[in-house]
């Protein structure tokens, strides 16, 4: 029965030809004496906007006679017709009032100098109005509505049985009577209402009108021979479809207004298929068609709106929206009809429908909008597969509070004034970020777009530490590495907040001109923060740009701390390979070989034995006793010789040690690199530093295919701090760092001190 219902309905609904870029209603039915407004859409081109618009009636020989145009009115239309162009909506409207049956016929609405230009065929039917015509009462009612038919009778039959018959072929079939009988096709939909003994008429009511209810009826009071009879002609009006004109890749909105008693019922939108069935695309019970996954959403507010984005040419056709307890279309159900046309000759900019990202990487989604909506609010939402909704995540005003927590530090919307696009950047990607996202504005809904984000295998293009620790009053340099393919791109750092990511001032310290060969030394972009405060704590982004288009980004969280009292005054270099490590001042570590030398010296008692001898001979009381007991100059000379031979080598050892320590400290202060974090109010530089071997990357710029970036050769001036990083190859001529030189000087000093003390202990004595 449902199949038969939609087959009948489609038989009278327009079957729109998609060959013409002009689009309008193909079938229009109106009651005599009423008016009609016919919308005709045309492609959004400058030529069409300024071209002549016309409405003509086709004759028997194929000639189309102009009735009305931009500058012409025929005598038949004077005072009752008008044509209005709406170039901003790419359509014009033909209004005709006081319709007569003579207005029925074939028409064309078109654009062009002559009537054979771009046009669309329209069939207009004017049917008789309600009332008595030639002894027959005419009634007109909409499909799915309720009709009340008045049936008169005489006083002689006021107490007799009342009944209604329908003419089917040459026979009359009983529909309902006052004894309680109801035909199975009308069960629970028909009734007879008696007005009282003083009234000489009754009401025949049909609810939930179907197309099959149309036809001729006979109202009767009394028996067949002496009863009163009246003839009725009922015509059920098919719903006139509302026209929707969409652009390929754009979006459309179905605004479904329902009766008040239906506002609490489950809503639905269905599309008529080739087999004449109406497939539910979406309803409020959670049903959703697979073909519209990620690009359809429903907002239920009593009346309800359905939005479809990413229009395809196969989306064109007939649609119905309505409400029912099971969320499905039913025969006789009040529904609103739609006719969707998809223009394939659109000049609307194409938007990327699929973007790819890697875990830990980022994507920059470009969202176009209508140029007239430059002052409108921009939004970005994530399509919810559970209820087909799309909760907003970020807007022109910043992160949406209700959705901010999962996107803290990794989502921002950047609007480029005047170029008709805005960019949404999402970094620190995870597998949970895969899904559908919508680009929205508060302006023209035809410019809404859907982007599907897919998470694929690969490595992020940009490399930077995930977290960095700064001390108040010190400076920290945070490195960010980019591969050679981004050599000519603009590099930047920005400070993230819920309102966006504000770009920091930059200072180029190295040559950035593009060349055939890529120098890895120029691919480090460093953030330098001086004199930081607690206000500088937060998220910082490192990113690249290709002209006005944003590319990859990477996020770093900066923590600002008070420096501990026991911490060293001089910070050491810690330019580790960026990754998931934390940058902070390191703790000094004694090399194993240095410990070995110091332990060896400690185990040799000769130096400490000599020191004990000096201490014993240095006691004042003992020296006086030794002088008193000495009986000859030889004894005094021997004591002096022993004292001199002991103190002179010891003094030389102490002096040499002091010189060595001074040299080490001087070299250490000269060669030290300070790495800390401070205020971004000072400098942001692109440092000319050598690249670590641990910097590798994959190309994710512009959702391109993932390719492994080949690491170029070079020394490791930034050794990796992660525990699983191993250097597999040592350079042939390793350059000693300042720390290594200090260690070697300290070692030489201890060895020399050991040798000298040994010579003093083991050498000949004159005593």
From TrEMBL:
Gene3D superfamilies according to UniProt: Immunoglobulins
Location of the Ig-like domain: 14-111, 130-235, 460-555
UniProt membrane topology term: Single-pass type I membrane protein
Keywords tagged on the record: Cell membrane, Disulfide bond, Glycoprotein, Immunoglobulin domain, Membrane, Secreted, Signal, Transmembrane, Transmembrane helix
Compositionally biased intervals (Basic and acidic residues): 610-625, 729-742
UniProt signal peptide: 1-18
Region (Disordered) location: 610-640, 695-742
Record's subunit section: Interacts (mainly via CDR1-like domain) with dimeric IgA. Interacts (mainly via CDR2-like domain) with pentameric IgM.
Protein purpose: Through its N-linked glycans ensures anchoring of secretory IgA (sIgA) molecules to mucus lining the epithelial surface to neutralize extracellular pathogens. On its own (free form) may act as a non-specific microbial scavenger to prevent pathogen interaction with epithelial cells.
Protein name (Swiss-Prot/TrEMBL): Polymeric immunoglobulin receptor
Biological source species: Pipistrellus nathusii
Organism lineage string: Eukaryota, Metazoa, Chordata, Craniata, Vertebrata
